[in-house]
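COURSE: Structural Biology Practicum
ASSIGNMENT: Worksheet 4, Part C
STUDENT ID: 0417
INSTRUCTIONS: Below are two proteins. For each, the amino acid sequence is given first, followed by its structure token string. Answer the questions at the end about the second protein only.

PROTEIN I
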Amino acid sequence: MERIWLKNYPPGVPHDIDTAQYKSLTDLLERSFREQGNSPFSVCMNRWMSYKQLDELSTAMGAWLQSKGLEPGSRVAIMLPNLPQFAVTMAAILRAGYTCVNVNPLYTARELEHQLKDSGATAIVILENFAATLQDVIERTAVQHVVLASIGDLLGPWYGRWMSFAVRHLAKMVPPFELPLTAGRTVTPFKKALAQGRTMNLRPAAQTMDDAAFLQYTGGTTGLSKGAVLTHGNVVASILQAEAWFSPALAEIGDLRKVNSIAALPLYHIFALTLCLLAMRQGSFITLVPNPRDFAKFIEVLKQRPFHVLPGVNTLFNALMQHPMFKTIDFSSLKLTQAGGMAASEGTAQHWQAATGSAMIEGWGMSETCAIGTNNPVTQKTFSGNIGLPLPGIDIAIKDDEGQSLPVGSSGEICIRGPNVMTGYFNQSEENAKTFTADGFMRTGDVGIMDTQGFTRIVDRKKDMIIVSGFNVFPSELENVISTCPGVVECAAVGIPNSMQGETIKVFVVRNDAMLTEEAVAQFCHDKLTGYKRPKYIEFRDELPKSNVGKILRRELRSAK
């Protein structure tokens, strides 16, 4: 197929990437550790970790994991927030020859049980704050080895000890738990595992680009979540693609070791995970934000030192701007505001650029595509409202339900093919057969249109489409328009059953102007939208339900009474 988008690549961005320079993701990490040495890798609560320390700590943890006799390729779960322990654990699992299973720390017992059972994880590294949830389900899983981390384990001997004490006894954020030691199960404190591992040797793992590096679980918005199998080759490709695409924005910094990327989105999520791995490839450093919902502390972190890359979702940018201390942040060093995870709204993007001077660069991707699949050029000066161009080495096709490619300008399902795309869902042969087309494209479930320049615009998810009297209405279009109404902070549109029209439209609105009325919003919609797209119902709310990564949960709004 013709890659019509290549003509709009920024100067210097390659059309393809070369993954052959590495034998595996582990090879990429270990080269970085050797080359970066004493350069900083992360900072958390003003405590720094160098690449040398990350190397030494992950070597020790990897050796300890190997000492437990896990088979090559075994799945090891990580249930940690954005703390230094996350990168140490991830690198340790990979270096030991195992597969990382990223787990949302805020999972309920039901969700955790499903993921542990589905993945077949035999070990887990978990923050003690969430151990009570594990206690409820561990007997029904294959988990035999638990590494129990405390928040202060890698924050220094004095400050770390104080933080762990404060979290346990002052804030009382560690519910009581008792993990059963039946059938040979072990429970080992994180620092003890490191100490024991330092006395052992890490055996090199025989890995190829085809081996599984991560089981990255989908959000599970329809039924039970599924584990996308991301190979070493998939992840290396995604790192090199992101590096190539972002290079024009970071070029003027020169020494990439000075680049500070903000890790406020959770590292268990594919978006933040890939940017963390990109930092390792480049030798730059990341600022870890364990709780970005505490916006006062988050803003204080942003004020501490210059930052250059700020990834986020639309709701995160919105919430930052609503905080009274937002204007105290110095954005003069910001080179890239990267939006993803959900559609960015025009209203938010306009306000962000006006406040920071940085254009919001929107991209698109999925767990299944190892984060970014398409992105707007980082040289862009204004918000575009589309999801941009395919990254180097990626093909995008707009297809019909039979898998046939449609002409440019037609609306159809966005399908993707490239070295970053998963090999399939773990133990889901029937689902995999439905997911991939005969010519090797993965169906995404997103409905979009590609223009003659190769830019794609998402119209919406198939399942979110609202049908009003036979007309298709896409919620994202309504939300994008209504977000520009003065006084609107954010909004969500859903379809509700109607015996006459099939569905009618209801919009839920969060406002920052108490004088904004339903009538004013309705008039704004009347002025901006054709008749069948105008909402019949408008409801104001103090907040909208969101997932842990900030996506608005339309399904909860649909079921609201």
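PROTEIN II
(use this one for the questions)
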Amino acid sequence: MLEFDNQKYSYSSRRNMVYARKAMAATSVPQGAQIGMDVMKRGGNAVDAAVAMAAAMPLLEPTGNGLGSDCFALVWIEKVKTLYGLNASGVAPMALSADIVKGKGFSKMPKTGWIPTMVPGAPGGWAELNRRFGTRPLAELFAPAISAAREGVPVQVNVEPQWAKDSKRIAAAMEKDSAPHAYWWQTFMKEDGSPYRAGDIFRWPEYADTLEELAATNCESYYRGKLMEQIVAFSQKTGGYFQEEDFRTYHPQWVEPIHTDYKGYTVCEIPPNGHGITVLMALNILKGLELPREKEQGETYHNIMESLKLAFADTKTYVADPRYMKTRVDQLLSPGYLAARRALISDKALEPKAGDPRCGGTIYLCTADEQGNMVSFIQSNYNRFGSGIAVPGTAITIQDRGANFSLDPESDNYLEGGKKAYHTIIPGFLAKDGKPIGPFGVMGGFMQPQGHVQVIVNTVDYHMNPQECLDAPRFQWVGEKKVQLEREVPAHIAQKLADMGHQVEIVNSNLGMGRGEIIWRMEDGTLVGGTEPRADGTIAAW
């Protein structure tokens, strides 16, 4: 189905793609992938492996996710040849409103403190994946993370700068109100007040204790038991908005994946409130444009950038909790509407504005098993450590997903209690002619749809193998006509884009350019994977 050269690596890379016959697991920290592989070697399936990895990643990479994260998943079950979608994103506390936020002097949602916190969905998502498709009990799946938390794990290289940077953000929040953040500081900073560095051993016995509680109750304690009571009590004591009923009524949702055809391949995403639809819109705009034969041309970058900018202008305007969206998914994906958007693209950079379609800091992991099952899974705090709030005695750090709400009453994404926010995390999945090819993802806030589109173009248009695909230098549109290019982008392309009207910035750190993983299943059943050179991960293969 896919055509690529496994000996071709056009970009500077220290990695080769990896083959496996029976199973494969990939994520941004080596130990995480190994945990998933151990599960499959003991007879567990791809879903079991994904859940075990998800439970370990808050320990292995706390700068991206935690026990207070949200998660989304796309799950291919070979036996019934069906792709399932799981939305385990949370909702705003019923006691919170836009008027309260404005009354505290905010003109937009903050990213620290209790205001941007929402009921976390990740533990419920783990339990629901296990209930529907798992073959092993949660106690067994959580055991590797429990052991590692008590023994300690070394901090990885690319985690260090994120830990250091975010500690400054949370230190600033503590100066304004120390009560919600004091336990976070006690947990994540060393005794001398400095952040953990690469190679330091991070021990977190409370994390192990809470995982044991979650396993013993199938995660019910988090929503309708002891852990919920601890979260709510701390919230109410330190100025938060959570009430017990916010948790008691929460359940993850199974959703129908959305998809589009891109040059004979089916690209699948989670529907809103996630912004995976941005990927599908951009690809539909892009497929009507002519791309140069060679990837590293200014016109290639320009056409991808312009397609993404137009798609983002719409999704930032219209995507919200689907119960509140006035614009339907089919309207946003309408061929006629996207053709009209495509017609706006010229040889000059545009400053995108939303059209009217009604007229007509995250971790990613993927797994594949011997039976043909595959999982694309993403889990996130949003801004690295999230809200900077940790609940004493629980190891639960709370995300700040509510930061993406709007305070404009005309917006579909207007903050209301009990509502889901616009969400940036998106797992991806690729298929062809009804047959699965495999999971892929690129984590990193608003870089995620841009990373997905660049991965798909590299794969489909330029026939790159999965490692070459991830090695390729990336760009990121950051608003108006501003684009960031990795320093590996050839200078002549940067100059060409500047000549076309783009405001070009060359970034020296690639940590903000997304971190991805890919697993493809070939026609003979062989698995082949690539892992992100911008992160610390390796692929575990069997």
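ANSWER KEY EXCERPT:
Q1: The chain is about 35% helix and 20% strand.
Q2: The mean pLDDT is 95.
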